[in-house]
Amino acid sequence: MFIKKYLKWISTALVLTGILLTNLNIYPINIYIHGLGVVGWTVAGFISKDKVILTNFGLQIPLFLMGVYKVIF
User: Fold this and answer.
1) Could you report the per-residue pLDDT of 2-30, keeping only the tens digit for each?
2) Of these four, 17, 19, 31, 73, which has the most CB atoms within 10 Å of its CB?
3) How far is the CA of 55 from the CAs of 26, 45, 70, in angstroms?
């Protein structure tokens, strides 16, 4: 419970920071920070067996991987 609680808060902070960086046009760090938050929320959803969270954040992972791929290549 302790880890899940803090994982959610840290992931939320990362997602919101990523959104802020996107709005400020600070690339590509926004992709990495937001992506870490999404992975954190996906793990939290897996731990809590919450299918809604898994669907929402789990489906965002491939989108962020496409963004990382575009930055690298």
Assistant:
1) 677 799 999 999 999 999 999 999 999 99
2) 31
3) 27, 9, 24
- Find the helix or strand (DSSP H, E) in which 61 lies: helix 60-72
pTM over 0.70: yes
Q: List the chain domain ranges.
A: 2-72
17 token code pair: 């920071």
Angle between helices 2-23 and 29-48 (to 10 degrees): 150
3-class secondary structure per residue, 15-58: HHHHHHHHHCCCCCHHHHHHHHHHHHHHHHHHHHCCHHHHHHHH
* Contact assessment for residue 14 and residue 37, using Cβ atoms and an 8 Å cutoff: yes
